[in-house]
Design a protein that fits this description.
The complex is a heterodimer of chains A (657) and B (120). Chain A has 657 residues and is an alpha+beta fold. Helix content of chain A is 40%, strand content 26%. Chain A has 17 helices and 23 strands. In chain A, the strands form five sheets. Chain A has a six-stranded antiparallel β-sheet with strand order 8-7-6-11-10-9. Chain A has a five-stranded antiparallel β-sheet with strand order 2-1-5-4-3, sandwiched between helices. A five-stranded antiparallel β-sheet of chain A has the order 13-12-16-15-14, with helices on both faces. Classes of the chains: A alpha+beta (657), B alpha/beta (120).
C-alpha cells in the first residue's frame, strides 16, 4: 500500500458510501474533534472498518461515538445515516439495557466480548422487533494504553434463530401428533404447543364451513384462566370483513396493536377485540385446492410485532395440523369401514372365506366355522381339500382355473364334508382377489348352505310322487268300487245308489282323517263315520267301546268295511224294518287282542244268503288282511252277527289310545 | 280277444283288498283261474315259491314294501309276470326293464291284453 497511513485524512477516497459520509461529516462539532487530530489507533481501525466487506462499526471515545461501514449501515434501520457520529446510548436506547453493560465490561476489563444468538428487541421501521445477533466487541487500545474505542463486528441471525426455534417446536410436535388418532385432539395438542412456545395469550385452530358461513374452533390454548374462551362455532365475519377477506384470498392477517390498527380501531369490530382481550393478533389461513379451508391464530393481550417468522411458524403448524387431522380422519373412516365389514363378516349367516391360489384358507367367518365344526381361526392355514371329497375337489380346482384364465366369478354347488362328517351342500359364489398390479392373489368366496333346501326339494319330489301314487290308487279303488257296484243284474238305479253310498263312505273316511291331520282315527270315529250317515234313526244304532287308535290306511279300510255291514243291515237286516237295532261294541281282550262285535236284532227273519255278495266278501277280506283278524259271520234267525277278533293294532301317533 | 288262454292260472299280488277282489273277478270273467291272491310280501313270497300258476301280476308297492324280491324269484323260475302300479314314471328298476307295467287304474281289457302277451 502506497498511502501513508500516518497522514491525516488518508481515507480521502474509497470506503464506499460511508467513506463519503465520514469525509463529509462535521467532526469538529463532535467530541472526536477534526480527523486530523484523531489518534493513530482510530485511523488504523477506521481504515480496517471502511475496507472491510463485513459489517463493522467503531464506537470511539468516552461517549462511544459511532462510525460504521456500508456493511453495517442497514443494522440500525431508520437510524442510518443519522447515527453517524452519535453516542451509542443515543443510537441504541432500545437495546441499551443489554448492550450498555457489555460496552462497560469491555472498557473496564480491556478484554474482547462476543456473543451469539443475542436477543435484541430492536425498534426498526417504527416497530419494536424481536431480533437476534452474533456480534463481538473488540477493545481498541489508545496511545495511553487504555481502551479508547470498541470495534464491533456483527451480523443479524434472526432468520437462523427463528428457523431453529421453529424446528425445535415442529419436530417433536410432528412426532406427538402422529401418535394421536383423534382429529380434535391433534389440533388441541398443536395449538397448546404453539401458544406455550410463543408465550402469547391465546392460540387456536379453526376449520371453515364456507357453505354454512361459519368456522369452528374446537379448542384454544389460553395462557391462564383469565383469557376468554373462543371455542365454538362462529360466523365467518365475526372478527371483521377485512380479516375474512384477507384470509379467504390466502393472505395473512396481522394486527400488531388493535388500538392503532386502522382495520380495527374505531370500527365496530374493535369492541369484539376488546371483549376477547385481543390487543395483538396473527391469523394465517390454510388454503386447500384454492379454497379457504382452515386458519390458525395467536392472540396477545399486549401489542406485539408479528414478523414473517411468526407467519412461517403458524403456517407450518397449521399445515401439520391439517395433514395429521386428514390422516386421523381417514384412519378413523378406514377403521369404521373395516369395523362395518368385519361386523358383516362376523355376523353373516352366509359362509364367507378367502383362500390363496393353492386353495389354502386365509380367513373364514364364524358361519364357516360353525358349518365345518372348526373355530374360524383354526380354519386359517387349512386346505379346502380337507372339506371336499376328491372328485368334487377336482371340480373346485377347475372353477379356480377357469377364473384364472377368464376372470369373473363362478357359482356352483359343491358337496362339503361339514361338522361331525355331516354331508352338506354349499352354493359357492367366488371371485379372484386381485392385487394392485392386477395379479390374482387368491379368492373370495361366499357360500350358502343349501343342504336343507336340497333335502326340502327332495322331500317335495317324493311327496309329489307319493301324491300321484295315492291318487292313482284311489282311482283304482274307485274303479273297483264301480265295477263291484254295477256287477250283476240289479236295477241300474240300485247300483248307482250303492256306488254313490260307497263313494260317500270313502269321502267321509277321508274327511275324518283330514280332521285328524291324517294322523289316524279312533275306532269310535271310524264306526260312527261308516254307520251313522246310513242309520234311519240314531237311537237304533248303539256304538261303544274303549278308545282304540288306528292308523290312517286301516281307518279307511274299516270305514269301507263297516259301510258294507251297515248297507247290508239296511237292505236285508235289522235296519230294513221299522223296529230293529244294531249294536256295535268292542273290547280289549287279555293278551293284547281286540274283539269287535256287530249284532243285529229286531229285524226281519234272517237266513244265510245263497252266495255272499261283495259287501260281506269285502268285510272278510279287508278285516282279515288289514287287521289280521279272525272274522266270524253268522246268520241266526234273531239277526245277523259279525264277530271280529284281531291283535290290538299299534297305536297311531298323535291319537290318544 | 287278445287275452290269455282260458284256464290260465294267475297269481295275484295286490295289497288293496277291494282292488284284489276286483282283479279276481276280472281274471275269472276272462275265463282264467285265480291260482292265489297275496296281499303282503310274505304271502306273495310263499305263494310264488309254492308255484301252481302260469303267470303273475305284481303290485310293486305292498303296503310300503317293494315286491321286487318276488319278481326276482319269478324271473329265476322262468314264470312270466306283469307289474301293476299306481306310480307314474318311477318304474321297478333296470333289472326288470323288459317287464310290462300295467298302470293303475287299469281297465279289464288292459290287464287281459298284458296277461295275454305273457301267456302266448
Amino acid at each position: 500500500m502506497n498511502r501513508d497511513m500516518r497522514e491525516p485524512g488518508w481515507f480521502a477516497s474509497g470506503g464506499g458510501d460511508m467513506g463519503e459520509r465520514i469525509r463529509g461529516h462535521d467532526w469538529a462539532a463532535t467530541p472526536l474533534g477534526p480527523p486530523e487530530r484523531w489518534p493513530h489507533a482510530l485511523h488504523l481501525s477506521l481504515g480496517i472498518c471502511l475496507n472491510s466487506s463485513f459489517p463493522i462499526a467503531i464506537y470511539w471515545g468516552p461517549g462511544l461515538h459511532l462510525l460504521y461501514n456500508d456493511g453495517w449501515s442497514p443494522i440500525p434501520g431508520k437510524r442510518h445515516p443519522h447515527a453517524l457520529g452519535q453516542p451509542a446510548h443515543l443510537v441504541w436506547p432500545d437495546i441499551w439495557p443489554i448492550v450498555g453493560p457489555q460496552f462497560a465490561d469491555v472498557i473496564a476489563s480491556g478484554r474482547g466480548y462476543s456473543t451469539a444468538d443475542q436477543h435484541l428487541p430492536m425498534t426498526r421501521s417504527g416497530r419494536l422487533e424481536e431480533s437476534y445477533w452474533d456480534y463481538s466487541f473488540t477493545p481498541i487500545t489508545g496511545d495511553d494504553g487504555r481502551v479508547a474505542g470498541i470495534l464491533n463486528q456483527g451480523h443479524e441471525v434472526t432468520d437462523r434463530v427463528f428457523e431453529r426455534q421453529r424446528h425445535a417446536l415442529l419436530l417433536p410436535l410432528a412426532d406427538r401428533l402422529r401418535a394421536i388418532d383423534d382429529a380434535d385432539a391433534i389440533a388441541a395438542a398443536a395449538v397448546d404447543a404453539l401458544g406455550a412456545h410463543l408465550g402469547c395469550a391465546r392460540a387456536g385452530y379453526a376449520e371453515m364451513d364456507l357453505a354454512a358461513g361459519t368456522y369452528t374452533v374446537t379448542h384454544n390454548w389460553r395462557r391462564d384462566a383469565d383469557v376468554a374462551e373462543l371455542r365454538g362455532t362462529h360466523a365467518l365475519g365475526a372478527f371483521g370483513v377485512d380479516l375474512h377477506d384477507a384470509l379467504s384470498t390466502g393472505a395473512v392477517f396481522a394486527v400488531d396493536d388493535a388500538l392503532e390498527d386502522r382495520r380495527v380501531a374505531g370500527r365496530p369490530v374493535a369492541e369484539r377485540y376488546r371483549a376477547a382481550g385481543i390487543r395483538a393478533g396473527l391469523v394465517v389461513p390454510v388454503l386447500k385446492g384454492g379454497q379457504y379451508a382452515a386458519a390458525i391464530f395467536v392472540h396477545d393481550d399486549a401489542p406485539r410485532c408479528w414478523t414473517n417468522h411468526h407467519e412461517t411458524l403458524l403456517s407450518s403448524v397449521a399445515e401439520r395440523i391439517w395433514e395429521e387431522r386428514g390422516r386421523a380422519r381417514s384412519a378413523r373412516s378406514l377403521r369404521e369401514s373395516e369395523g362395518r365389514y368385519r361386523l358383516i363378516f362376523e355376523q353373516a349367516n352366509d359362509i364367507i372365506f378367502t383362500a390363496d391360489l393353492t386353495q389354502t384358507i386365509t380367513a373364514a367367518n364364524p358361519a364357516a366355522g360353525a358349518a365345518l365344526g372348526v373355530p374360524p381361526d383354526a380354519l386359517t392355514g387349512r386346505s379346502i381339500a380337507e372339506f371336499v371329497a376328491p372328485d368334487d375337489l377336482a371340480r373346485t380346482s377347475g372353477m379356480l382355473r377357469r377364473k384364472l384364465a377368464a376372470g369373473g366369478t363362478t357359482r356352483y354347488e359343491v358337496p362339503v364334508i361339514g361338522k361331525d362328517g355331516a354331508s352338506m351342500r354349499w352354493d359357492i359364489n367366488s371371485s379372484l382377489a386381485i392385487d394392485d398390479a392386477g395379479q390374482p392373489t387368491g379368492l373370495h368366496a361366499i357360500a350358502r348352505d343349501v343342504t336343507e333346501r336340497h333335502a326340502h326339494e327332495e322331500s317335495q319330489r317324493r311327496l309329489i310322487n307319493e301324491l300321484n301314487h295315492r291318487v292313482k290308487n284311489m282311482l283304482a279303488l274307485v274303479q273297483a268300487l264301480a265295477m263291484q257296484s254295477f256287477k250283476g243284474d240289479r236295477p241300474v238305479e240300485e247300483s248307482q245308489a250303492g256306488f254313490q253310498a260307497r263313494l260317500a263312505a270313502l269321502a267321509s273316511a277321508h274327511d275324518l282323517l283330514t280332521r285328524e291331520k291324517w294322523e289316524g282315527a279312533t275306532l269310535q270315529e271310524i264306526v260312527g263315520a261308516a254307520v251313522l250317515p246310513l242309520a234311519p234313526e240314531r237311537d237304533r244304532v248303539a256304538i261303544g267301546g274303549p278308545a282304540v287308535a288306528l292308523a290312517p290306511k286301516l281307518a279307511v279300510s274299516l270305514v269301507m268295511a263297516f259301510h258294507e255291514l251297515a248297507t247290508n243291515a239296511i237292505r236285508y237286516g235289522a235296519l230294513a224294518g221299522e223296529a230293529g237295532a244294531v249294536d256295535v261294541h268292542w273290547d280289549r281282550l287279555p293278551g293284547g287282542r281286540l274283539a269287535i262285535g256287530w249284532h243285529e236284532r229286531g229285524g226281519p227273519p234272517v237266513a244265510p244268503p245263497a252266495r255272499r255278495g261283495f259287501g260281506l266278501r269285502m268285510v272278510e277280506r279287508v278285516l282279515a288282511k288289514d287287521l289280521a283278524a279272525k272274522v266270524a259271520i253268522d246268520f241266526p234267525a234273531t239277526g245277523f252277527s259279525c264277530l271280529i277278533e284281531a291283535p290290538l293294532p299299534a297305536p297311531a301317533a298323535g291319537i290318544a289310545a | 280277444m287278445t287275452g290269455p288262454r282260458a284256464g290260465t292260472r294267475v297269481l295275484i299280488v295286490e295289497d288293496e283288498p277291494i282292488i284284489a277282489m276286483t282283479a279276481e273277478d276280472i281274471i275269472e270273467e276272462m275265463g282264467c283261474i285265480v291260482a292265489g291272491s297275496a296281499a303282503t310280501l310274505e304271502q306273495a313270497t310263499a305263494l310264488a315259491a309254492a308255484g301252481g300258476f302260469d303267470v303273475a301280476m305284481l303290485d310293486i308297492n305292498l303296503n310300503g314294501e317293494t315286491s321286487l324280491p318276488v319278481a326276482a324269484a319269478l324271473h329265476a323260475a322262468g314264470t312270466p309276470f306283469v307289474f301293476t302300479t299306481g306310480y307314474g314314471s318311477a318304474g321297478p328298476g333296470s333289472d326288470f326293464s323288459g317287464v310290462e307295467v300295467v298302470k293303475k287304474p287299469y281297465r279289464a281289457i288292459d290287464l287281459a291284453c298284458a296277461l295275454g302277451r305273457l301267456a302266448r
